[in-house]
Amino acid sequence: MLNEAELESALSQVLKGVFPTFSEVGIKHQRSFSIKFGHRMVTVDLKDPSIYPSRAIFDILLTIDEKPMILLELKKEGLELTDKDLSQGLSYARLIDPMPPLTVLSNGHKNVVYNTYTKGMIDTDIIDLHLLQSIIDNSFAIALNDFQEAVRTLLNKDYSFFSNVINSNSRERFRKKAGSIEQFDKVICDEFQIYREIQKNIEKVFFDENTHVGVVGPAFSGKTDLLYQFYKSIDSSKGFTFYIDCNDFNVSILQQLATDISSNSKIFISKDKIREFFSNSLTDDIKFYLLVDNFNSTVAATVMEDILELMQMFKTSNHKVLFTIDEYNMEKLVTARDRNYLTTIGEMSTILTLQDLDRTEYEEASEIMLTNHQVFIAQGGHMATEYRQPRILRHLLAANKHDRQTDRAISIDAVPNQEVLELICNNPAYPRQLHIFYKNLSKCFIREFYQRKKSSELATMALLSGAVTVKSYEALYKKETKKIIRSGFVVIRYLSNGTPVIYPKVPELVAYHSIDPLLQILLIMSKNKSVKDIVSKFIDLLTSFPCPDIIGSAVLLKLIEQGHVDLFLNMTKELLDMPPDVQVVDGEMTALAYFEDVGHIKITTTVKVSGDLENSEWNIEDPTSSSNDSDSVKSIGNYLPYPILSQLAKRIFLVGNDEISERSLNSHRFLIWKIGSQPHIILRVDGQSIRNLQNISTHDIEGGEVVCHREGIVETIVQSIQTCFISLPQHIEQIFEDAKSDKNRFLLWRIFQALVPLTNSVNVELSERASVLISEFLTTDGEWPIC
User: Fold this and answer.
1) How would you classify residue 78: left for phi > 0, otherwise alpha for psi between -120 and 50, otherwise beta?
2) 174-208, pLDDT tens digit by residue?
3) 292, 321 Cβ separation under 8 angstroms
4) CA-CA to 472 of 20 to 30 Å: which in 58, 81, 172, 418?
């Protein structure tokens, strides 16, 4: 490598050979020089081969009267001059202001002279002032479109510099949003990244439909995570991504790109040059992705203008825009309100919906939880809507992380209960204002009970969601209505008559904040109503609530906590006398249902007259359709009381300071027996998307139906049996013996399902006792549908 003395000697040799007529030439051994872009002068830092040995080249600027005349690229002696050296030298020379007329490449022996303006080689060995003046007088200014080529050459032609700069800035923006499992103010968690299947759809749209993509989803659904995963999937050698969050970005996108490139290259680049760069690269192989997070109607005007301009410019190119948006802003930005047409953004975009985790995504999330965090949800958790939401899974991980004191994995019950609901709703990521909103929604939801009775559309929309009409909410909280609608935590939907409805996006909070109001209603009714009337009204109120089984049991438990033991016992007895209500419907049955991603639909069921329920046909139609088939039979059931009791069954109830006695055990055995003997599958109700319905495998035995044991625990009563066996195995062993003597196949099957997972328990005694009961179960009369 050349040192300073060697450089001076080599330079002197070149000057004597090429510039013999120069008496005084100013020599700048360039480590930096000024370049003019627009009206600004900026400094370029050149690369010293002692720091960048791969270049093995010095940049030397020769001046006359302090005016740049010749840029000399001096390469180490013995190394060949390459086209790459020429491109590099010409690129720097053409960016200097004023531009030096000549660019010379030399390795000490061979000198090659180029006209900087035309890039043509000059066939001469001697350079004098006459030649320089002739070149200056007869050359024109560099064409504007040459700027892009010069920059591209300067940035290695393959855009690697450009992509590295843009990607690194995006990485920094994402980094600021990333944190650990417990940092709920950070929306990205590298410790828990679930690949979303929607990414395949995004890539397919970009490739097949050649349009921009908008991903719609409610707050906390994982939209930012999706953009982060897309960013990481881009090969920086073939493309680059620029990420902005509209919630904290209010400067011109083109200006920000120009600033990022300028600050990293030390070359001033204006936003007009970035615009020109994109315009000239539309047909190239490179791909630029603009990632816009939290796109909304209040975005800064400069940002909106740039987004629209880039969308228009990229419309038929490799460059694309991927934006995330909530339902409220989608309706404002993508569709023209009260009109049956799309806005410019809507016309240029394909809108995809980010759903809850499907089965494949859930299994991947489970694998990450177990492998990386030693936490797992027991088999069967895929059926719980709550566990198919990444925000909830992350919170479950955080809550269990500090409990790990050994290498043993922590198991989370497959069926969510009151503890899980409280854990979800106490998520620190939920601001105080959000809880206030949802507490108000819960009160409105209770007040609209009779209104739902009168409107089937409102009733089906409110079912398991907590939806209320805007009018009812405004009547109580007029000042807060606009805030809650704009928050992204709810969306507005409409009934067929145009009535606007507030549709909650965090339904667990509606349930959580309804527990105390429902309790107060029970206590007020207990003063002048019969237990039968109280229970009837209680079930009616609960039916539409999200998580009705959990909040129903939570309200009953609060009765005990507050000393209303008699009311608890009487209500429990009344609920036990309300087993699943199975009815037979002659002829065709049509039901109205509501799915948020589809709307209101009519579901028409037709069953053959033979009564073979396995041959039932389901036909999903729009609300205006009808069917003429009349000869059909269908069994339907409403069994909400038993899911509530199933939640209660995990506890053995004691009064005051009493210890567990035979009396309390007998009462609990009766509860388990009554519910576990039902020939109908007692699943939790689920208001999931019609596009993400979870199938469940079942078997028919002796006039009833049971869940296939491969599904795991999906019935709450089975979960309660397992919980009780862990704490008091002899209690469940007695229930098993009674069921075996009575040949109660449905209860035996449920006990079998509850104990199968425990045969691998780390608790050796528990595992052995579970294995004994499983062995006894397999010797009972009759064939069991074990597969």
Assistant:
1) left
2) 999 999 888 888 889 998 999 999 999 999 999 88
3) yes
4) 418
